[in-house]
Task: inverse folding
């Protein structure tokens, strides 16, 4: 079992982006999901860790392709569209090592798709170097928003009824974010009330955030 568990999450599918998406495309997809409330804080942090860090992304993709080898078809297709096919295959062959043994599934090798373009799983690393630029994970505005939303919900009487609006995110000079907005939620008597809130969100430096709710009134 790998670090992602017995059945891996496909974060590309979660974000609705191509497996060859560039970091900027992934960031925009994360922001879109966060603003629509379609992704929770844990999933957002995992997407940042595994898709926005070039080394983590290589390892994640290798494991994902091992479990879902059909995804290599998309990688191969994009690789061929990016330039001269023969030249790319020559580059791939320079680093490719075809393993002596491959596991079979229904009589078809899991690595069969890779073999079509002349490589093994080292191709994955090569392709990711082509389409991904190194990036440094850091606190961003939509992560700050999701962190604030999570913290505010913990203070509500009925967090499941919360509806957020009026988001304002301000980057401070010390690298923290001040996040403000409104939330409509039921009180103890079931009535919907609107409250305003303010949070200060900071990067704790270990891929987690620290959030303080300054006020909820």
Result:
């Amino acid at each position: 079992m790998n670090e992602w568990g017995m059945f891996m999450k496909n974060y590309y599918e979660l974000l609705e982006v191509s497996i060859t998406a560039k970091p900027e495309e992934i960031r925009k997809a994360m922001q879109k999901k966060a603003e629509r409330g379609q992704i929770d804080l844990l999933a957002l942090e995992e997407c940042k860790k595994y898709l926005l860090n070039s080394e983590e992304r290589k390892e994640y993709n290798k494991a994902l392709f091992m479990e879902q080898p059909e995804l290599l078809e998309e990688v191969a297709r994009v690789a061929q569209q990016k330039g001269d096919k023969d030249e790319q295959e020559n580059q791939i062959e320079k680093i490719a090592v075809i393993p002596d043994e491959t596991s079979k599934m229904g009589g078809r090798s899991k690595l069969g798709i890779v073999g079509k373009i002349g490589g093994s799983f080292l191709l994955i690393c090569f392709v990711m170097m082509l389409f991904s630029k190194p990036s440094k994970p850091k606190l961003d505005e939509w992560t700050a928003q999701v962190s604030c939303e999570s913290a505010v919900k913990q203070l509500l009487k009925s967090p499941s009824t919360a509806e957020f609006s009026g988001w304002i995110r301000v980057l401070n000079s010390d690298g923290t974010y001040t996040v403000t907005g409104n939330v409509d939620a039921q009180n103890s008597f079931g009535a919907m009330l609107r409250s305003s809130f303010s949070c200060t969100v900071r990067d704790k430096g270990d891929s987690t955030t620290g959030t303080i709710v300054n006020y909820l009134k």
About this structure: The beta strands are 104-105, 108-109, 163-171, 177-186, 192-203, 209-216. The first helix runs from residue 11 to 15. The longest strand covers residues 192-203.
